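Why does this matter for the project? Reviewers at the last site visit asked to see concrete outputs rather than summary tables. In response, this paragraph embeds two records directly. Each consists of the residue sequence and, immediately after it, the corresponding structure tokens. Nothing has been edited or filtered.
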Amino acid sequence: MQLLDQIAEARIQEAIERGELRDLPGEGKPLQLDDDSAVSEELRAAYRILKNAGYLPPELQLRKDVRDAEALLQQLPESERCRARARLHLLQLRLAASRRPINLLVEDRYRERLLEKLDPSS
């Protein structure tokens, strides 16, 4: 176990012994954890902070905007749907354009150069 983990465990145990963790919401119930297995371990904390702050990456925000526009379109009377359809179409075009193919060769070179710059031994 790493030093930080040991310190955290010790502090948690001290808080339990002092009774500071009694009567908390959800006590005795299983934790509802997000499935973040697709996110690399180094990025999980940052992603969780961004999620808790209500931030969505641009591509996910665009998908959310499309879903919201579709839901709005269903609720509008027929006489008001023309402008909403135009907005939905524009969002769908933006979403399609954002799904451009990635040039793996260029991405690989960029990653290598970035790692070289970040390497403290160079």
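We now turn to the second protein, recorded in exactly the same manner.
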Amino acid sequence: MTAPSKSSLAKLGLRAAGVAHDIAHPLSVALLAAQNIEGKGSVQLKASLRRMEKLLQSLRTELRDKPTKALGTSLDLTDLGKDIYAGLKLSDQKRVSFKLKGMVKTDAVALHRIMENLVLNALRHSDGDVEVTQTHKANQLTLLVNGGAKKRKPTKGWGIGLASSHDLAKRLGYALTVDIKPSRSQARLVSPKLAKQ
């Protein structure tokens, strides 16, 4: 049996991160709903949901606290944009454009999670198109997610996705800021000083 390659490890980590993120909200809703259920089977249901919650928390902690060292390799930003775009719903794909190029050395799974969360939040909380661009000045990379005008009926909060993105960005040494105005929204992800190629 051969050892998994770097690319297969990256894909596995990416899938696990996506599953953990997508399950968290419906699981919390199910746990709240289960508190009001009485009768036969309710005790087993609640216990099962609590076990699922513990497993999910363990998975998210593992992904956050012990990033795979093999993932600290050069990442093609064009491929990053293509991967995020491919994972969007067709209706969302029509609203998003990616203008990314070049290579960056980082944790590929973590950067994918951050950027995907920022794009999804921009789609959810703003009207109009979302554009993902970059600047590269003073040996520092800045990734920008620009959203349209704020929705007239705003969705409450920015959810666990943004909190997770802030945490991951900090661990990578990146600075993440989100600026929301009535006319537009912008998320800025600024890398630490990059080593000269």
